[in-house]
Amino acid sequence: MPPKTPKHEAGSDTQTPSGSRTPPGGAAASQDGHSHNFSVIFHPHYKNRIAIHCDRPQTVLDAIKSTEAWKKERTFADDKLIIQLGNEDKEVIVATHFPCSCIAEDQIVIVSQQKHQVEEAGVQRRAPLLPKDQYCDFRVDTEGGLNTKSKKLFRNSKIKDFKYVCVYAERVMTVEEAVKQDGRFINELGDFKLTDIEDKNSIQERTQKVYGLHSKRFKLCLPMNKTQSGDNGRCANVQLAVALAKQRGISVYSKDPEKPNTEADLENIRELLRKQFPALRKWLETVLTAKTYQIQMDLKKNYFEKIQQSFSEVYRIQKLLRLAKSVCKISVEGICTGSGFVLVDNLIMTTAHLFSRHVENETLDQGIKVFAYFHYDVPDPEANYIFFTAKNTFIAFNPDLDYAVLELDPAGQKCKKKSLKSTNVPPGLLQTFGPLPMSGEVCLFGHPKGEVKQMDLTWIIKLENRAEAVDEHLSPHMTLFTLLSIKQRLSGQGIENILVDGGKANNVVTYNTFMYHGASGSPVFDDLGRLCGLHTSGFTYGLMEENHVIEYAQPLLTIFEDLKGQVKARGNNQLWDRIQQEASKNSYLMKILKDPKQPIDQS
């Protein structure tokens, strides 16, 4: 059986509130029959997974130390260890004194040693003896929130190589007590707060109880320095620009060299930066005029009216909803979630990057389980949905086009109590393949964040407008100096590849959508109901939360041409005959089948 969906790895069970502390002796006694299993991998020996049976309440480190592998091979210092939870690449780490009872059944933990201290010395000796339901755990993003950019948050900088630290606490403790007990944060955090990543307007103060924070994700925020507010903050920004200019060897005019630059000098600084960064000058000329702002507003209005016109007709929506029954949630157990759709019969298509670093010779690593959930449409815990297990060998796999095709076990398993009319795999969508439009409107169906199926109507950002669309997305809330940093980060992700003259510019379609973090692999439909693209990824920057500036999809006609080559190369004639039979009902696919040398017409 697959894990229930959605699943929280650490402390995944529903917990019962407790209003008082339990004495350590009594708590331990109440856990008679304690028994669960997990396994440990000692980095860098990822192939060796040591099974652990835990039969008493103890820390995760104590349980790991009970293995012969630890006793014979390791001389790690307790306060220099990092323990990763799960097999996902650098996702979540827990403290060495994390209660083993809060680790999910059959979970994997990965242990590595650092040169310098990770945790405060002595915390490893704290033995958590409380029942599991008196703990809660929550995650803190290692990329800090407001006012943390230049601040040290953790004892060891290597912690920031991971996405989250998982903090646990007794349910009656305060946030501050939980963070201090954790041992990995520095002691001088001061008056910090936690901002909910899902709801940035929800703030947890350090004096509040941790009750209610279980399984949530936060960013740690620090108070604003005095020099960051009012005129002082503006002067600091000006001085930063001056320093940058001096590094470039250009003098900066100042009315009085004995006084710091003030607001009045901003125009001089702007002009200086325009000379240094031609692209930035173009952006400033675009966003700093009221006329341009009005033009952008008019464009938005026109786009909205187009979407209304295209998708307001009921028959279009009804057609899309019928096709959406073939969309599924993909769960790579213990690693990540994504989206996908039925290609033909028992074959599903999704993105290749969901399986990153877990594929060898086009086969999933041993022990990696993949499930496809269909009819996961409402959040009701009693709702109907079915799941299928995927086989570990890919039918096709291409990291460059970022697609993967897997085969499902034909025996579906019903997960919920209520009856379904059918527990078969829904119909395939190969017949609906069409060209990828470079303009107009599109519709996405997927499972962002692993949640119920969602739909997003959006419009295509034309190639010549992509750079402007990115700048427009950033301009309302970016300072001049933050913008430089963000653009550098976007450049590091390869955003130039999809802009004019970029290597992928003419091979993808771009748009803005809320469908990310679990929506990779979503099908992209045009306004005629043709399946034209595979939602692949987007370009991000981090402030108070993770933000995307633009997203893109791969063309499915190009993917089909590659799929044809891979299936034929494997000599799977029976499967190829079935694909040809289905593709013969589609005029676009027939052109690819008849003349593989002819360029694909995406019009």
Textual characterization of the structure:
The chain is α+β, with helices and mostly antiparallel strands. Among the domains are: 24-221, Ubiquitin-like (UB roll) (Roll), CATH 3.10.20; 227-276, no CATH class; 325-429, Beta Barrel (Thrombin, subunit H), CATH 2.40.10. The chain has helices at 24-29, 60-65, 68-73, 175-182, 230-247, 266-276, 278-287, 290-311, 314-324, 466-474, 480-492, 556-569, 573-583, 587-594; strands at residues 36-42, 49-54, 81-85, 92-94, 107-113, 135-141, 164-170, 193-196, 203-205, 217-221, 327-332, 336-344, 347-350, 359-360, 363-364, 370-374, 386-389, 396-398, 403-407, 413-414, 441-446, 454-461, 509-511, 523-526, 531-542, 546-555. A hairpin with a 7-residue loop joins β21 (441-446) and β22 (454-461). α5 packs parallel to α6 (266-276) and α6 packs across α7 (278-287). The longest helix has 22 residues, at 290-311. Mean pLDDT is 78; it is low at 5-9, 11-31, 226-264, 287-293 and 303-308.
